[in-house]
Design a protein that fits this description.
With 317 residues, the protein is mainly beta. It is 4% helix and 51% strand. The N terminus is likely disordered.
C-alpha cells in the first residue's frame, strides 16, 4: 500500500500545471525570454503590438507599431533595442517596456520584394546571433492566405539577407541543437517537422528531411512555433489542437501531450530563473467560432521536469 501511495504521489507531483498569466490578445506569437531582465517579450500580430510580461510583478505592457509585428528579439549589447519583424521588413526598435513608448530606429533588411503583400512570421537568433526569419503569403482574412509564397532567410549582422528555403506556406518553428548539429523547422501546412544539417561556423543549413509527421500520430491541427529542451526534445505548439507536444526528433516519437486551454496554441519558449517554466502563447481569432478567455492569453506551464536553453539575442553591426 505504501508503494502504491508513493507512485500516486510522484505522478501527481509531476503533473504539469498550466496558468494564464497575461490578458488575452488577438494573435500572440514569437515569445522570447530575456534572461537578464527576467522578462518575457512577445507580439500580437493583428493588434499591431509588441508586449512585455514581467513575472515578478505580474505587469503586462504593450506598445503599438505601424504595421504587423511578428517577432521581437533583443539586440545584443544594446539595452532596450530590439529587432522586430514588421510586415516584410526587419526593423530596429527602441522600447523601454512602457505603454506605447516604442520608437522606430531604422530598417535593417527588407525581403520578398516580388511579393509585396507577404509578411514575416516566425523568427529566432541562431547560436551565433544570426537572425533566421521566415515569411508567408498575403493573409486576406485570419487563417486564409496565398500559398507557397513564403521563404526562409538568414539575416547576418550587416543586414544582408540570404534566402535558404523557398516555396513555404507558413514559416514556423526554428530551433537548433548544437550536439546534433541540427536545425529544426516547420512549414506548417506540411503538417510535419523538418531537420536540416547545421553548420554553426557559417550558419548554413542543408540536407532537409522529415523527422516527424502529424498524421503518423493521429494529430489534428498544424505545426506552429517550437522550442527545444536541454535533453534535445522539441516542444511544439499544436495550433487548432489545444496542446503542446513533446517530441523526440531523433527517434520521431511523440513523448508527451500537455493540454492548453486555448484552441489556437501558437508558440513557446522556456523561461524563469532556472529556465524550467514553459511560456506558451495563443490566439483568439474568430474563424466562425468566438474564442473566449483565457484563449489568447500567454500561459506558464510548470512541473514539466525539464529545462530549456537561454534565448539568444540578435547581433547587429
Amino acid at each position: 500500500m505504501k508503494t502504491l501511495c508513493m507512485k500516486i504521489w510522484r505522478r501527481c507531483k509531476m503533473a504539469p500545471v498550466v496558468e494564464a498569466v497575461t490578458e488575452p490578445v488577438w494573435l500572440g506569437e514569437g515569445p522570447h525570454w530575456d534572461h537578464n531582465e527576467q522578462a518575457l517579450y512577445f507580439v500580437s500580430i493583428f493588434d499591431h503590438t509588441i508586449n512585455k510580461y514581467v513575472p515578478d510583478t505580474g505587469k503586462h505592457t504593450r506598445a503599438k507599431l505601424g504595421g504587423m509585428p511578428t517577432f521581437i528579439i533583443p539586440v545584443e549589447g544594446k539595452p532596450h533595442h530590439f529587432v522586430v519583424g514588421l510586415n516584410r521588413e526587419v526593423v530596429e526598435v527602441k522600447w523601454d517596456g512602457g505603454e506605447n513608448s516604442a520608437k522606430l530606429v531604422r530598417t535593417v533588411a527588407e525581403v520578398d520584394q516580388d511579393n509585396p503583400k507577404n509578411r514575416f512570421n516566425d523568427a529566432k537568433a541562431d547560436p551565433r546571433g544570426r537572425l533566421f526569419a521566415g515569411t508567408m503569403g498575403y493573409e486576406y482574412e485570419p487563417g486564409k492566405f496565398h500559398l507557397k509564397k513564403g521563404s526562409l532567410y538568414r539575416i547576418d549582422a550587416d543586414g544582408s539577407a540570404t534566402k535558404v528555403a523557398t516555396d513555404i506556406d507558413i514559416s514556423n518553428g526554428l530551433c537548433w541543437d548544437l550536439n546534433e548539429k541540427a536545425f529544426y523547422y516547420a512549414d506548417s501546412f506540411e503538417y510535419a517537422i523538418r531537420r536540416y544539417d547545421y553548420d554553426v561556423e557559417t550558419g548554413d543549413i542543408s540536407n532537409p528531411r522529415i523527422v516527424f509527421v502529424y498524421k503518423d500520430h493521429g494529430l489534428d491541427g498544424i505545426v506552429d512555433g517550437m522550442t527545444i529542451d536541454t535533453d534535445g526534445n522539441l516542444w511544439v505548439a499544436n495550433f487548432d489542437g489545444y496542446q503542446m507536444l513533446k517530441i523526440d526528433p531523433r527517434s520521431g516519437k511523440l513523448l508527451q501531450r500537455v493540454e492548453i486551454p486555448a484552441l489556437q496554441v501558437t508558440s513557446a519558449t522556456f523561461g524563469g530563473r532556472d529556465l524550467d517554466i514553459l511560456y506558451v502563447t495563443s490566439a483568439s481569432m474568430n474563424r466562425g467560432e468566438e474564442q473566449l478567455p483565457p484563449r489568447g492569453s500567454t500561459f506558464k506551464v510548470t512541473g514539466l521536469g525539464v529545462k530549456g536553453h537561454p534565448n539568444v539575442n540578435v547581433r547587429l553591426n
